[in-house]
Specification:
Layout (H helix, E strand, L loop, with lengths): L6 H20 L5 H27 L7 H22 L7 H32 L2 H20 L5 H9 L1
Helix pairs in contact: 1-2, 1-4, 1-5, 2-3, 2-5, 3-4, 3-6
Amino acid sequence: MADTQDVVELILQDHRRMEDLFRQMRSVEADRAGALREFADLLIAHAQAEEAKVYPALKRYKNIDDEEVEHGEHEHDEGNEALLELLEVEEVGSEEWDSKLEELVEAVTHHADEEERTILNGARENVAMERREALGQAFAQERERQLKAGCGSVENVRKIVES
């Protein structure tokens, strides 16, 4: 991973890591349960940090569409619900597990693609690098705080989904 403070690059790095974890969760040769644990922590920490530190700041820029930011938050909810459904499946690799995994992949991939095309491109074009680096620091700190708190546990994901 490149050593950067740019919030756009940090978010993109997380998206690429999520794609790697999807590949591991699909592979019968990988530690699928371990990949899911890492994915759950990463997805929740990433989304919580975006909603707490990045999205509110980006809404202040007139060339970044508020509706896109709010839509991103809605898609986080959908991803969290799909994650909870997968976490609640008892047998890793079962038909139900594979089915719930594909629902999760679809929800998260759709969101990441949209976010990259709309919100992140808007940030690249309209937000000065100095500000993107400040947002990157805030994002990274909140993301780390969430990770240390075990944010991807099934109990915490359930709490987020139900709130």
